[in-house]
């Protein structure tokens, strides 16, 4: 029997075999597809109950459990990858996912993305399969999933001239979010999911709640003049969400329009997350102390901001003089000491 539950867009199925009742979501809005999934599940349950066979599970069932159990802050990124993977893995049983199918997925992804993005996609498949084997005990083994070697890239940030070129190529709604990122340093999901309830324009402050922050702590975001101006431009476009497109909330910004804009602007090796790196780099170059940058950016570790230290080598110069003259008289000749003090 197929049916829908309140507040859910997916079809559910329920049936009983020899007193065993099975009730699950199909993970799809397509009724025909949902019926097919339900029929397969019923047939498999019959085999399990009647013949004592080990239960088998579909990829969709693993995805649903993965999303339900997940406590990751980057779950939206997972959903993005899973939506793409659905073409190749939906209606496939976990034990049928072999190396040949994985290679087919890799080949398809390579046609539209680089090796780094392919790694992110296959890492998610690997994680779900490992969970199904080690924790859920749904499968006995997992296939080998090769991983491309990733080059160690330098921290990529934009110059002001590059940023201006890029902004000139972006659609208006994407441009607004990019400019807001450059003004605040917020991560992609924090910008796309930003709600008006998180903003106080009078006090010029925004808040990222603890469950939205990567470090798991509330981030207090001071809004500069640029950020305030961008927010004022969004007023009246949506009752709840700040950034929208044609009246609908935006879920993903690093899409084909972003890639086209980068190409037109002549910018290579740059991702949306690079806007956060750019914000941090500009701050350090303008004299913002690293400990202040850490608080502004919501980093949990000071080590995370040390990678920007080289952009402001002069920030140590003023402190170097704190011990100047303390040992010169004892370690160099009076003549050279005089030269050093007058230099």
From TrEMBL:
PROSITE patterns: TYR_RECOMBINASE
Protein keywords: DNA integration, DNA recombination, DNA-binding
Top-level taxonomic group: Bacteria
CDD domains to which the protein is assigned, alphabetical: INT_Rci_Hp1_C (cd00796)
Domain Tyr recombinase, chain residue ranges per copy: 153-321
One GO-annotated biological process of the protein: DNA integration
UniProt keyword Mitochondrion, yes or no: no
Family, similarity comment: Belongs to the 'phage' integrase family.
One GO molecular-function entry: DNA binding
Taxonomic lineage of the native organism: Bacteria, Pseudomonadati, Pseudomonadota, Gammaproteobacteria, Methylococcales
Protein name (Swiss-Prot/TrEMBL): Integrase family protein
PANTHER family per the UniProt record, alphabetical: PHAGE INTEGRASE-RELATED, PROPHAGE INTEGRASE INTD-RELATED
SUPFAM superfamilies, alphabetized: DNA breaking-rejoining enzymes (SSF56349)
